[in-house]
Specification:
Layout lengths: L3 H28 L5 H19 L22 H10 L15 H13 L3 E11 L8 H5 L5 E4 L15 E11 L5 E6 L4 E6 L2 E2 L3 E2 L3 E6 L2 E10 L14 E6 L5 E4 L2 H7 L5 E2 L6 E3 L10 E5 L4 E6 L4 E12 L1 H4 L8 E16 L4 E8 L3 E7 L2 E8 L5 E11 L4 E5 L6 E6 L2 E5 L2 E7 L5 E8 L4
Antiparallel strand pairs: 1-2, 1-3, 3-9, 4-8, 4-10, 5-6, 5-9, 7-8, 10-11, 12-16, 13-14, 14-15, 15-16, 16-17, 17-22, 18-19, 19-20, 20-21, 21-26, 22-25, 23-26, 24-25
Helix pairs in contact: 2-4, 3-4
Length: 454
């Protein structure tokens, strides 16, 4: 006779095995969607239609949780996220969406959320005590027994955990970098000894004893970060509470914090400026644009920048206007960040091919209008917009000693196209110029149409 009591543990183990296998298959089915742009696009559309109202369009959270940072209260595996969307949390005000979305749509939404993940996951740490004044050697340190170890709280490194002044600190976990652009891990920990390993390979540092950065792979990778104090007495301005921030590859835009110290530093750097009912003008330093640029946002979600030194249109982008937070935090050490996708930006620009540029003023009536002179010809330029995909810049001849031939260099980009009204386009090698005879054209314009992202 079969003893069912004895069989129970075996049956439970078999059931558990099947459950783990099913979850792994479900995870992989969702992860496969990450490499299918059309599936991610469908997930984004579905997310924006319902989920964005609580979690915000950028997934940073409002009444609902932040869905892209390091903290996951209800599980971070693809199958966990899928089940959470499917079943909801009625007690927290989140409905079950299994009756609203199909199984495939929920998978697409899950994949889209995963594609936007940033920062650490499954993060662990080890702290090693160092002998006072001894030479530093990572091989010897890692052979010692850690005096502290564990899982990092909320998957965020805290370099205040070590209790000794001389210590080594090792972080290890999965790390999510942007999937759509190259990025770097910027580290501010003056005079400490640092090592970074990505997927088991040591990464070369760019920088100096004060600040450095390390190139990241796109998307998910395994990251090990090592920090060790120098022997005492420490050099002046040594900082062991490291600030880890992920930046774009050019290191001029801070994307997100990757340590507790960095979270505190970046707090208050999100201050979006948008054009809602009327045009908005901002005279602030903007990333990717030259100094003396004036940014103008239109309610139809197209924006441009006029430079008062060159009289050129030095950038245009679709979306919201600017996040000026980095520009007003800590004496404006960082430029404002455009909130959208570039059509073009300097050095590509709509630039007069003359050095005789003299900016006069700008006025704000129905549309913001810039007045300036080029080669003794007084001109104005203003922008209008029919929809959120086109921007029309209209130039007017206001006066001048005599008719002249004006020439403008036009931006090169496969991401937008332009159409002129007045003058002619002339190819100059790989460049295109716009030539206008002011005797024949008192008004001339160029329409920019967005067809992609820069």
């Amino acid at each position: 006779m079969i003893n069912t009591a004895q069989l129970r543990p075996v049956l439970f183990a078999v059931a558990s095995l099947f459950s783990v296998s099913a979850a792994a298959q479900s995870d992989q089915a969702i992860l496969d969607l990450l490499d299918q742009p059309e599936q991610l696009a469908a997930g984004e559309t579905a997310f924006n239609s319902i989920c964005a109202s609580c979690h915000k369009k950028d997934l940073s959270g409002a009444t609902g949780f932040n869905l892209k940072d390091s903290e996951w209260v209800h599980g971070s595996a693809p199958s966990d996220i899928y089940k959470n969307i499917q079943n909801g949390f009625a007690q927290a005000g989140m409905p079950a969406f299994k009756g609203m979305f199909s199984d495939q749509q929920i998978k697409q939404i899950t994949a889209y959320i995963l594609s936007k993940r940033e920062g650490w996951d499954n993060l662990t740490y080890k702290v090693f005590e160092l002998a006072e004044g001894r030479a530093r050697d990572w091989d010897q340190v890692l052979m010692q027994r850690a005096v502290k170890s564990g899982s990092a709280n909320k998957n965020m490194p805290d370099f205040n955990i070590p209790e000794n002044e001389e210590f080594a600190y090792v972080l290890s976990g999965d790390f999510y970098a942007p999937r759509d652009q190259d990025a770097r891990l910027s580290v501010h920990a003056p005079h400490t000894l640092l090592e970074v390993y990505i997927d088991g390979e040591k990464v070369a540092k760019k920088g100096n004893a004060w600040r450095g950065s390390y190139p990241l792979k796109r998307g998910k990778q395994h990251l090990e970060f090592r920090l060790m104090t120098p022997p005492k007495p420490f050099p002046k301005y040594t900082r062991t509470n490291a600030s880890l921030i992920v930046t774009n590859d050019a290191e001029n835009i801070k994307l997100f914090p990757a340590s507790k110290r960095a979270v505190q530093q970046l707090a208050g750097t999100n201050f979006p400026i948008t054009a809602t009912n009327s045009e908005v003008v901002q005279r602030k330093v903007v990333i990717e644009l030259p100094p003396y640029s004036v940014a103008v946002g239109l309610p139809q979600k197209m924006n441009y920048a006029f430079n008062t030194r060159s009289c050129a249109i030095v950038g245009a982008w679709k979306g919201d206007l600017l996040n000026i937070g980095p520009n007003i935090k800590e004496r404006g050490q960082d430029g404002s960040v455009p909130l959208g996708d570039w059509l073009f930006h300097a050095p590509e620009q709509i630039k007069p091919l003359t050095k005789d540029c003299d900016f006069i003023k700008y006025t704000r009536r129905d549309a913001t209008e810039f007045e300036f002179t080029l080669a003794d010809t007084r001109l104005s330029v203003a922008a209008t917009q029919a929809n959120n995909q086109t921007l029309t810049l209209t130039y007017k001849v206001l006066g001048g000693a005599k008719p002249t031939q004006l020439k403008f260099a036009l931006p090169r980009s496969k991401q937008n196209k332009y159409q002129i009204n007045g003058g002619q386009l002339v190819k100059q090698g790989p460049h295109t110029q716009w030539h206008i005879n002011t005797a024949q054209n008192k008004t001339f314009s160029i329409q920019l149409s967005a067809v992609g992202e820069l």
